[in-house]
Design brief:
Layout lengths: L1 E11 L5 E11 L3 E5 L6 H7 L8 E6 L2 E2 L5 H7 E4 L12 H11 L4 H14 L15 H13 L5 E5 L7 H16 L3 E5 L3 H7 L2 E6 L2 E6 L1 H6 L1 H6 L6 H11 L11 H7 L8 E5 L8 E7 L2 E6 L4 E5 L8 E8 L9 E6 L12 H10 L4 E5 L1 H9 L10 H10 L4 E6 L2 H11 L4 E5 L1
Bound molecules: adenosine-5'-triphosphate (ATP) and magnesium ion.
Length: 438
């Protein structure tokens, strides 16, 4: 089912500015779509059409197959929630609490349901402490979070967010994108605009590039960012990981498809050409000694010996010093840690309260874990309730897999459907793993 579709969309502002010309856009139900484009390319104008805030000068907008009209506008606005680029255009109530409650009140929900929804989103967005503050006194990033929370509280089927992460710190960005992923797992369609190509590359199922009011290109991130010329012509910048890959490929070190994450990038590196390595001496070594390389506690260690991955020390080194090893033969990735996935009930399944804490303690005591991560609200809450600390704050799946590839035993707590995503990725990398459902 197509959630939002525009055909031949044109829009001219009253001063004659032609903001959109012949835009054909679609977001399928359950998809994560990112719209990229330079300033003034028409992203905000396009988003205003998605719930009938403005009417097309020409063309059509359909939401779940229905063309927007006077008769169905109320229904459409319930299904499509828009978070504006400027939070000041959205926040107006005297407190954050009342602001978030405004949407659900407008939906004429009962007072208990309103209270539940507000409490839940305050918790989800970790802004409980801001509930009684006046929105105009919040910091830029906090305002943005409160504005997103207000729209999420209305539980629309489609969430449209105009530059949701601009002005946020790194933690805020990760947190926000994780909440959007969680909502997407619960079945919501998510459309964002952003100037952050790194974020769009790693997050989106599909990307639209707008330029001067037209769709310049659309497609899956791998195709979009594989075309260096196209990205430059669109006035965008390649993600750092793609730039690094191109440099490595030009030097014969990387090969294969364009990577969009550090994990993909690791796959692109041709280990056979990496026959000189930097390692830490596990014992005193002399130049010319045969050494074996092993990853321990995340570091590449060189000990004297001829087992497994071997090489020769280039110069003398005392235990603990950095040394160079040449003629490295063998694949370092064979020294892997394990991954334990614990599925915590998602918020809609009762959250961390529905989990048996003793069972988690039991799983943790029976499985080795040197590094821990939590994905999603209920998993994070469970970690806190157990007094555990996360080693990975950002990009938990990728960070966990990278740590396992460096030899750590990793445990990941994941809320609801997110656990399946972790398992899928871990399987792809052929790592040893076990899954527990709480
Ligand atoms: N109210 C308005 N009246 C006249 N022109 C407008 C109005 N709002 C936007 N425009 C023009 O429409 C074009 C598209 O603007 P829009 O805000 O949609 O771009 P955008 O891609 O969202 O840019 P940004 O990245 O800066 O947010 C621009 O040329 C802008 O100057
Ligand atoms: Mg804009």
């Amino acid at each position: 089912m197509i959630a939002i579709e525009t055909t031949g969309l044109e829009y001219t502002y009253t001063d004659g500015t032609n903001a959109l010309s012949g835009v054909n856009f679609e977001a399928k139900e359950g998809e994560k779509v990112a719209v990229l484009g330079p300033n003034g390319s028409g992203k905000t104008t396009l988003f205003y059409h998605f719930n009938g805030l403005i009417k097309p000068t020409r063309g059509e907008v359909r939401v779940f197959g229905e063309s927007i009209s006077k008769n169905n506008i109320d229904k459409i606005r319930k299904r499509v929630g828009i978070v504006f680029q400027e939070p000041d255009s959205q926040l107006f109530a005297p407190t954050v609490y009342e602001d978030i409650a405004f949407g659900p009140k407008n939906l004429r929900l009962g007072s208990m349901e309103i209270k539940n929804r507000v409490t839940q989103v305050l918790h989800r967005f970790e802004i409980e402490a801001l509930a009684q503050k006046n929105p105009s006194n919040l910091s830029g990033g906090q305002k943005k979070r409160a504005a997103i929370a207000g729209v999420v509280a209305m539980e629309p089927d489609i969430l449209v967010l105009d530059e949701p992460t601009s002005g946020m710190d790194a933690c805020g960005i990760t947190g926000t994108m994780e909440i959007l992923d969680e909502l997407n797992d619960e079945g919501k369609t998510i459309i964002i605009s952003t100037h952050d190509c790194d974020l769009a590359a790693s997050w989106a199922d599909r990307i639209y590039i707008l330029n001067k009011g037209r769709v310049f290109k659309s497609g899956i991130p791998k195709h979009i960012f594989a075309d260096e010329k196209l990205i430059a012509e669109a006035g965008l910048k390649q993600p750092v990981i793609v730039q690094t890959y191109r440099e490595f490929r030009a030097r014969g070190i990387s090969r294969g498809e364009v990577p969009l994450s550090v994990l993909d990038f690791m796959d692109s590196v041709d280990v056979k050409v990496m026959n000189i390595r930097c390692a830490i001496a596990g014992c005193d070594v002399e130049a010319g000694d045969e050494v074996c390389l092993e990853i321990k506690n995340g570091m590449l260690i060189a000990n004297k010996g001829s087992n497994g991955v071997t090489g020769r020390a280039v110069f003398d080194g005392k235990k603990g010093e950095d040394i160079a090893v040449r003629d490295v033969a063998g694949d370092i990735l064979q020294h892997e840690g394990t991954i334990t996935i614990i599925r915590v009930p998602g918020i809609i399944e009762g959250g961390s309260r529905a989990a048996d804490l003793d069972r988690v303690r039991d799983i943790l005591s029976k499985n080795k874990h040197q590094k821990m991560g939590a994905m999603g609200t209920s998993a994070k809450v469970l970690m806190t309730r157990l007094g555990l600390v996360c080693d990975f704050e950002f990009d938990v799946i990728q960070s966990g897999i990278l740590a396992a590839l460096r030899g750590f035993d990793v445990t990941i707590l994941a809320s609801g459907g997110m656990a399946d995503r972790v398992a899928e990725k871990v399987k792809e990398k052929k790592l040893k793993y076990s899954c527990f459902v709480l």
